[in-house]
Design a protein that fits this description.
The protein is of the alpha/beta class. About 20% of the residues lie in helices and about 30% in strands. It binds adenosine-5'-diphosphate and magnesium ion (MG). Adenosine-5'-diphosphate binds near residues 11, 13, 15 and 32.
Length: about 120
């Protein structure tokens, strides 16, 4: 399952991932993968991967880091700044927009599994 998170700096992409992890039972810190590009989590019996590709240099760095291997059909991947990499297509795309108060989240399911997931929300 691949989830793209779109939105300006400060739109709440990392905050949303933190919320999902906390809801699944994660109690530790959730730091932004700004410099590491990837933070892995195992929580609630699920393998989650949180990417922030804002600082990804190019496609070569993506390939060398072995990030493609993370798209293994088992992991659930949240990706901030997906347009920076040749990442596989998204099952769900979430656009976050800064409002005067809070944020607006526009969510779109692109695949059968993505659509099924959004129906459950
Ligand atoms: N839904 C929200 N409503 C109000 N403030 C939010 C919301 N989501 C995030 N923020 C605040 O916006 C700031 C940036 O959030 P962050 O998740 O780091 O953004 P991004 O990852 O998109 O750059 C944080 O201070 C956070 O507390
Ligand atoms: Mg972020």
């Amino acid at each position: 399952m691949v989830i793209y998170l779109n939105g300006d700096l400060g739109a709440g992409k990392t905050c949303l991932v933190r919320g999902v992890l906390n809801a699944l039972g994660h109690t530790g810190h959730v730091k932004s993968p700004t410099y590491t590009l990837l933070e892995p989590y195992h929580v609630g019996g699920l393998d989650l991967r949180h990417f922030d590709l804002y600082r990804l240099q190019d496609e070569i760095e993506w390939e060398h880091a072995g990030f493609r291997d993370e798209f293994d059909g088992n992991n659930i991947l949240f990706i901030e700044w997906p347009e920076k990499a040749p990442a596989p297509p998204a099952d769900i795309v979430i656009d976050l927009v800064i409002m005067q108060q809070g944020r607006r989240a526009i969510m779109k399911g692109n695949t059968a599994i993505g659509k099924a997931c959004l129906k459950l929300l």
